[in-house]
Amino acid sequence: MKISDLFSIDGKVALVTGGSRGIGEMIAAGFLANGAKVYISSRKADACEATAKRLMDAHGGECIPLPADLSGLEGATALAEALREREHHLDILVNNAGQAWGAPFEEFPEKGWDRVLNVNVKGPFFVIQQLMPLLEAAASADDPALIINIGSIDGLRPPKLQTYSYSPSKAAIHAMTRQLAAEFAPRNVIVNAIAPGPFPTWMLSTGVGGGGDVDNTDWDSLAQTNPRGRVGTPEDIAGLSIFLASRAGAYTVGEIITCDGGVVVG
Q1: Number of structural domains the chain divides into
Q2: Residue 183: inside a domain, yes or no?
Q3: 22, pLDDT greater than 90
Q4: pTM of the predicted model, to two decimals?
Q5: Considering 39, 164, 166, 251, which one is annotated as catalytic?
Q6: How far apart are CA 131 and CA 141, in angstroms?
Q7: Is 150 helix (H, G, I), strand (E, B) or coil?
Q8: Is 96 domain-assigned?
């Protein structure tokens, strides 16, 4: 029962949606550095390809870009078909692709609901549906397939920002995680979710006044509001993801685990 065995993902096949930047890229990097073969997906092909190259340059291994618009069934089906052309099974699926929309209450548009709910809720459902045959293909009682849905602490408590559709979408992915976990555990497919707090990402930068410029956003000011006194790091989110994707997490089912430095409890 060595740590190297409990937390090993060496040789596993993983897919991380929304893997071209932000939390998805952090998780993909952690998987790649620890021996997994990693596929990443994002809507923009050039960004997806550039990130795959950057990750392989940094960590070695094999990172393959599979661009897709995962806002509905069509994109999810195309992604599954592309993966089936390359693999006979899938060990780890991380549903990280996400969208946010911010606007004052009186001006919040209908498309700010449609786009966010499509990408954050409908998309992950159909990705799981279309990839289930690959997930079940090599899954067993001793070595199950693992699904990690990326929710948010904004799905657990009211947000600070005027992102009215984002919080309901993340609460929905938490609820869907529990429902699918109960259904899939007997099929040797384990489903859990991570609810991240503040990480230095493009998405959060646009919400806190950084305009998407991650490197020049004032993360120190945001860190002062966090009980841990900092924002998240790649090690934080990759470490938790590796736990849930390895033998160490195989008896953890249907959980929504915060990774937020104590924001929710603070």
Answers
A1: 1
A2: yes
A3: yes
A4: 0.96
A5: 166
A6: 19
A7: strand
A8: yes
